[in-house]
Amino acid sequence: MFAAAIRSASPLARLARPAAGLVRTPTLAAASSLQRMLQRQVSGTSAAQAVSAVTPPTPEGRVLFPGATGSHYTEKMSFNRDPKAMSTYRVLDLEGNVIDPAQEPDLPKEVLLKMYKSMLTLNAMDLILYEAQRQGRISFYMTSYGEEATHMGSAAALKNDDVVYGQYREAGVLMYRGFTIEQFMNQCYSNAMDFGKGRQMPVHYGSRELNFQTISSPLGTQLPQAAGSAYALKLSGKDACVICYFGEGAASEGDFHAALNIASTTESPCLFFCRNNGYAISTPVKDQYRGDGIASRGQGYGMDTIRVDGNDALAVYNAVKEARRRAISESRPVLIEALTYRVGHHSTSDDSSAYRPKTEVSDWIKQDSPIARFRKYLEKKGHWTADEEAAFKKSVRSQILKEFAAAEKIPKPSLDHMFTDVLAGEQPWNLKEQEAEMRALVKEFPQHYDTKDYQK
Amino acid sequence: MFARKSSPLFRALRLARPSTLRYRSYASASGTPPPAEGFMPSVATSAFMNNTADQVFRNPELKAFASSSTKKMNLFQAVNEAMDVALATDDKAVVFGEDVGFGGVFRCTMGLQEKYGASRVFNTPLTEQGLVGFGIGMAAVGHTAIAEIQFADYVFPAFDQIVNEAAKYRYRSGNQFDCGGLTIRMPCMAVGHGGHYHSQSPEAYFAHTPGIKVVVPRSPIQAKGLLLAAIRDPNPVIVMEPKILYRAAVEQVPEGDYTLPLGKAEVLKQGKDVTVVGWGSQLYVLETAIAMLEKEIPGISVELIDLRSVLPWDVETIEKSVNKTGRLVIAHEAPVTSGFGAEIAATIQERCFLRLEAPVQRVAGWDIPFPLIFEKFYVPSAIRCVKGIKKALNY
Ligand SMILES: Cc1ncc(C[n+]2csc(CCOP(=O)(O)OP(=O)(O)O)c2C)c(N)n1
Ligand SMILES: [Mg+2]
User: Can you give the residue ranges of the Dehydrogenase E1 component domain (chain A) (predicted)?
Assistant: First the structure.
């Protein structure tokens, strides 16, 4: 009895069985239902149709394995690398000419001017806040020089109901959606009017009203969150999507890969918008990744993907508009890689001359500027003149300086906000006690805990 | 593009009414970017800085190295020297992390790539879980991996690699494998303007993890000696460097090769009335607090101990001190709840219960995220430390 059991259980015994005996084993029944399943996945036929059909062998020589049902067998051994680089979609050339008239978006003059004026405003604000940090008036700042078209091109293609997740270098998107100069200044000054109550460093904006989730410094964390928000939008049947911005450096984080994959399998209407500006602080792209940029990864996750000239506001606009349509009407995530160049230092804590020659930057500015390109386009269309340019720059600069001075005068947030929002609901005992202790200290030692800059 | 000092923009800003709350500490007049690590006035004048070689070698831990010369350097230079020594003395040593190639955002790896080549000192892609896992792998096959996490606040993507992998590598394999060649450096603690994500002190998360060591140096000498010890220790070690000290702490540092012991605290100031324990830049706050107290209560005698190693920690030194003074105060920047002070307090009350004259006091960050604009109200300031010490004294 034991011998028989051993014999039938041993692989050798199984091999010794006649092949015909195998036909009736449940294993093969399972295999044929697997085949039907694969066939359904491949051909999209319904379960009912598939069951009624006579099971053919692997369709068109496709593999049987569930892991890659689109794959065909080949008897030629080959390793794949370096597929052709994905092309870069553009509408405008460097001189602001529309290359293919069919690609020119049908945008009214007001929208085009709003995009352009927002670029100039962002640029002017960057100049002033950067300098303000140098003078020690705000603690930190990050500019968006060179990336203005990615901001305005994408923002113009979105709707107010769309949810935005940013990394930190997307102030222009927020500006386009309606964040005011005053609101920017208040956040950078960490004053009492800052929506974030002065708790985060400058440039960590957020606005509930504008559907712009608050910026968080840890890189990549927003990406899977964006997928989740997109899935929720889909479940609730909203005519809206999520756009999630990130740098090509952040795309190396595990969260990036997790996000694309989960967005793909859940068919979430999420636009992953990569600003590939060539650098992550000092790290050039050659140390960041190999392969064809970030775009090539989208295909790996079964995602519609486009690479776009990020200095061409119209190309960015078209790409995001179509991506949004696909995301919502076809329930799918889309990856957009916008190629651009970080003209400024990484932040006010950085001096980029330590890792890239100054001429690299100056040559770049001469060669291509998203603002100049867009201005030439507008001028050619007769929408904008040099006089308008000069007048607008002057007025926006003085407006920013005015708001800047006003924000500086606003006191810091009240100490009342120090212990709130840790948890919703009633404060637990430890926070109650600690807050009381802190208040007693401030009262007892006013010379050490000067509160005159803080709102009462 | 960038406004110069003489530009009209600069003047326009000057004319605006200046705020009383200026970020003066890191505004630089030269136009070069200011140090991101802020500044701590009490460090420059601290008695814990060694200004002469004599002073340096009076330290019994350094006596054996008294034949070497010393050089004035700050903490980032000392860290740089430690890695330089490690790379020079161990051809299996490598140094890597985000932006490490050009010298690192805090300049700790400056010049190392030029000296040792890009195969030994290199940039990694921007992935903490990736680079720590990579380091574990190098160490697992016998190399010496010195990884940098750009800020301690950004170590969390690597939490799994550290807690579940590095820390258990040896134990789970029955000591067949280990990743003892791994050292992970990371800048930690407050800087004056870091907000939530450039200020944290996550030592207690790691102190809850059997299988790793955790070290926090207070000065250039300590940073160099402890880092070299960490690199050569047969266990994975996390070295948390208080970033505010990178430039602020300057002292004479022995040149060449030397190590300082892991797992050993150091008594910085002998005293008999109360024991005060801290680590990292908090020690300078405590030094100030003790000076304030000594002025207020003439004759008071405070013992100050630098814990140095958070894991394993030197219970013996602290126990001995508390048995002498009968009072213990612990100060750290991390939130008080489940901060490492809780562990010390629990252990000391177990061991010194009958000797304690007062409950162990903890002076620490509050249980809230580190808030930018409220930083001065958040940190365990000198005034709070004075209060805590007095509470222990007057119980
Ligand atoms: C998890 C994490 N690791 C490291 C950092 C430090 N850091 C801040 S920005 C940055 C570079 C980001 O580069 P990229 O994603 O390309 O964006 P860019 O700055 O070019 O816009 C790094 C390394 C961080 N904020 N978070
Ligand atoms: Mg980048």
Answer: 116-414
